[in-house]
Amino acid sequence: MRGALGGPRVLLRRLREVMAEPVSAQDRLDKIVVLIAANMVAEVCSVYVLRVDGTLELYATEGLNRSAVHLTVMRIDEGLVGTVAREAEPISLSNAQAHPAFSYRPETGEEIYHSFLGVPILRAGNTLGVLVVQNRAHRSYTEEEIEALQTTAMVLAEIIASGELTAMALPGAEPAARRPLHLKGLALSEGIGLGHVVLHEPRIEVTKVIADDLPAELKRLDGAVDTLRASIDTMLADEGVARVGEHREILEAYRMFAHDRGWINRMREAVMTGLTAEGAVERVQSDTRARMLRMTDPYLRERMHDLDDLANRLLRQLTGRTAGSDHDRLPDNAIIVARNMSPAALLDYDRTRIRGLVLEEGAATSHLTIVARALGISAVGHMENVVGQVDAGDAVIVDGVSGEVHIRPPADVENAYADKVRFRAKRLERYAALRDVPTVTKDGTPIELHLNAGLLVDLPHIEDTGATGIGLFRTELQFMIASAFPRTNEQLKLYRSVLDAAGERPVVFRTLDIGGDKVLPYMRAIEEENPALGWRAIRLGLDRPGLLRSQIRALLRAATGRELRLIFPMVSAVEEYDRAHHIVERELTHLRRHGHGLPERVLVGVMLEVPALLFQLDLLFSRVDFASVGSNDLVQFLYAADRGNSRVADRFDPLAPAALRALKTIIDKAAEYGKPVTLCGELASRPLEALALAAIGYRRLSVSPASYGPVKAMLLELDLPAATAFVEPFLGIRGEVASLRPQLAAFAEKAGLPL
Q1: Greatest CA span in the chain, whole angstroms?
Q2: Which residues contact 686 (CB under 8 A, 6 or more apart)?
Q3: Does residue 590 have an active-site annotation?
Q4: What is the tens place of the pLDDT at every residue in 79-120?
Q5: I want to staple 221 with a disulfide (CB 3.0 to 4.6 A). Which of 277, 342, 373, 535 is the partner?
Q6: Does the predicted TM-score (pTM) go above 0.85?
Q7: 45, 114, 200, 367: which one is catalytic?
Q8: Catalytic position from the list 114, 406, 461, 680
Q9: Looking at the domain 8-168, which fold is it?
Q10: Which CATH code for domain 181-202+326-424?
Q11: Is 435-751 a domain of CATH 2.60.40.420?
């Protein structure tokens, strides 16, 4: 490449010197465009910055009329500069004025310049502005010159993203890089969280982008690529990785990308323009991300995440950084932002500091959402590309009621949400006032309202709410937050604490429900094609009876002299219940033989969450002492729609007649056998859904602590006979509708029910 000052490497070194000078932002930009123009042997160099209003403003120029700076503004759909910004792709023309997108701006004096090279200023794939060089001659810019200008644009991206230019802008015309964002997603967990961004998988911040020794940087890059390839090969060769399945497909995609010569060559070429190895990785990935963000094919968009992860792995190799967040430095009022995460990963954080959760994926009935609700963390999902639009430490507001997220919110929005938080606190005070009021409907029907729990932090809610008891204690959460398998004595201590906190109130302990998306960090994960339908819960317990026996033994000993209620999850056949019940009897015999104290009474039940049990209800209710309905799994299996898959999780409504008929079948059959049934899935935790459940016959509901007040307030105002009469016609063969949701909402509004 031709260059008056010695080429791109010299330019980058000069830029580094300018970046370090104690000058104003405008002076810094003015010096930068002069350097670029001289290095590119160009008569013009201009920097356009994308503003919050979606327009592009000329911020600095060498060669055009200086009076046009901060005066020339164009739309993103206007001119060649707008095209570069919109498409996030370079444009190189030897006769720009002949191009149909050319837009003449007389105040700039650019009519005498014919050749044009514009490149997007990108960061994390997002366009922050456009860098342009122009010449009078009809000149064709070489690939090396385009590459060099893109590298230079990367340096400018850091200046814009830093917020340094904000002070130069008029109100309402600030650079878009730090603009407030108002995003709409899917509400997952109610509540309002105000705090600052913590990236669950932090981007590696590249602090040194300009190379001192190019051969050394190429060697570092090649070495990191070799190490990355070897690590992927090792993972694929691991006997614990299934021969088929989603996990292996991802690793195979990683291996394909890691061996792609085009990807490697682009990074090597970026190094040759003067970048460090990590600077080259970041630049190539930002360019690739920008292109893929503009694709409509969902498969190709999904591959973007694979490339993001692969680039981050490579950056960790180069910088020596380990994966994962620095949990020890979690700030107060943290808002966790992630593409997705497991329930165990969320539980690994200091929960007292988390105020919200924002996910690019996420589903309303996923296990992660359930844990977030249990912890009282407001959460919003389906926030596309949110990880690429935030920086660690950004102010953010998460509205888990409306599904809105405000990033870098203006003061008036913060004040409005501060008022919302105060209003919500007053509403919670009203719910607290209902603590000692019996849960009896308006017509005098008593409803048992229990809590779902799973951690010691949940136990104070029993007293705070005045709950009837704990309708579901998820024992697996203790295992998920532990660094090693909890010993019997550790389990015993937890279960005894739960029973002590409940006092005379009943507690239903669910035996380990692990597998699927609930993976224990210290156990080798078994890769399965469909983990939700695979080796999990009671299936795992019966195949590994030592695991189930040790837990049952701890539960029996913890309940010495008290009543113990046990429930088995994911039972799909009565025979499985019989085998599990036999283990309980064996453990009781073992305790008697060795002189241990025994529970006063042991009640054993089953979770109704596999549709096959709907056709075994007579056999089942003749055996069990009680049952609980796990509506989350039952409904997902009824509709064959994975509740953790955002593409299909919302394709059905649990208030559809089909789902309500299945639930009514259970409660009617239980009544025939005189067996108590509690619905403990998330369905009971929403007032409108709880209304439907009460209307079809459920008199025992178990809800999340945050939902206890709203559900109780609704039930106290409910005329149950009127609700039953309203719902029944829709459950008949001639009452088919897609969902009862709109009809129930209208009924509730007319009846004045608080929802």
Answers
A1: 101
A2: 707, 711
A3: no
A4: 999 999 999 999 999 999 999 999 989 999 999 999 999 999
A5: 277
A6: no
A7: 367
A8: 680
A9: Beta-Lactamase (3.30.450)
A10: 3.50.30.10
A11: no
